[in-house]
Amino acid sequence: MKKKAELPYNLDDDTSLPYYRLVMVVAGAFYLSWYFVVEVLLPGSYNPFWGRFFTVLSFWIVYAATFFSASVRRNIEFWFSFAAWMTTLHIYYLFYNNRIDITWVWGCYMAVITIAALMQTMRSMVTYVVFVIALSIFINHVSPNLSQVLFLPGIFTILGVAFIGLRSRLKLTIQVRENALQIRRLLDSTFEGLALHDGEFLLDVNESMAKMFGYPRQELIGKSIYTMCTLESGQMAAAHIAQQAESAYEAIGIRKDGSRFHIEIRGKKHMLKDGVLGRVAAIQDITDRKKNEQTKILFEASQEALRIRNEFISIASHELKTPLTSIKLQTQMTQIAAAKGDPQAYSPERMKKFVSQVDKQANRLTNLIEDMLDVSRISLGKLSLEKTPTSLNSLVEETLESLNDLIKQSGNQIICNLEPNITANIDRFRMEQVLTNLLTNAIKYGEGKPVNLTLTKHGSEISLSVRDQGMGIAKENQERIFARFERAVAAKNISGLGLGLYISQQIVQAHHGTIIVQSAPNEGACFIVNIPAE
Prior knowledge:
With 534 residues, the protein is of the alpha+beta class. The protein contains 16 helices and twelve strands.
């Protein structure tokens, strides 16, 4: 498992516990060394082992207690001051018992200088100064000859310099802390969430990110970033971290309460201390933006659906009205002729023409209604197939025969290139419907030029193609024409509902086949149907 990087010092924490732990170790080690140096340099001096042992031990006891006692941790300043006072008192005790030896003046100076330099707050410094001055005046009082060595002026000078030095240090510390807190407040006031991490564990976050994910800020520090997003998002984040990518990407975040929301992340590498490479990440809650996008998509889809519906209604009403108008016109003309007593009104020739026209328009109405019913069946998933082994050669011949009148009327010539004896397991009626649609389109758009119909078999696949030499289809329209109510040209130019290719594609796909178009403007169009033989 990856090792966590060291967490940064918390600027909001005023206990200064790490500092006091360090200085207690340093102070304890210093005085332990100092006492042994005195033992070597002044072997005849008064320097009892147990006194120095318990003095040094006091620092170590307080240091150890910080790991077990919350009370000691909260009041670390008091306990450090207590150990420092006891050490100073012990030094003065040694000074006094060594008969005010001038050599021990330097020992007192060293102790006061060291301890004063370790003080961190003005309160601790003031109380220590008062304590040292009181001790110094007392020992000067009981040993008047100390006035000859300027002991008190030296102590006052040391304390004065230490006091001034602490003041300057505290001002600098306060300024640094205020600057850091100002930066913290600035980062917390941003709308984006900001996070510093080592590649897996969070080292620091701003308040915006904490609120975004529903955690207290301190609870987030040290947490794995991969527990705060979905598995897929975690994999995406890992890839960006591994590549040190700086591009933005979207992910799914997980709040503390388990709810999920959309976020956008942009990361950048950042050098941590000791040369460890980490990353700074900016996280933005894009839930509202995603909702707006979804709303926009739904709105556009609804507008498109309304457009298609309105266009369909317009086309359908026109297409349905045309055969009905023709039937009505034929009927009215026959009625008028009968009312005038025209002897030819009911002649066999006129009745034959009348019945033929009505039948033709009735068939057209039937085909339009069947197309709309097929669309409904497809939408409901109820387009069923009744497959039987079928000769495609005979299917082509019968389809051409049924379209014979249309072909003669249009003037198109159908050129067939059929391989013999091609059989497939298909729904005969539905595949005839596909071929009829393709041939009808070729006749509509073929501009009276020859239409090529090809039937071939390659292995287990059968290919049926219909190629015209008409206006062709632009590349951007070749996918659209297979949609419902769509066509390559305006509805006013070509009749029909725009359902033929859509229905044909659905039928071919139901046979586990494909239908494609190859075309270019002014180069005609070739529709190719590929279906499995079995």
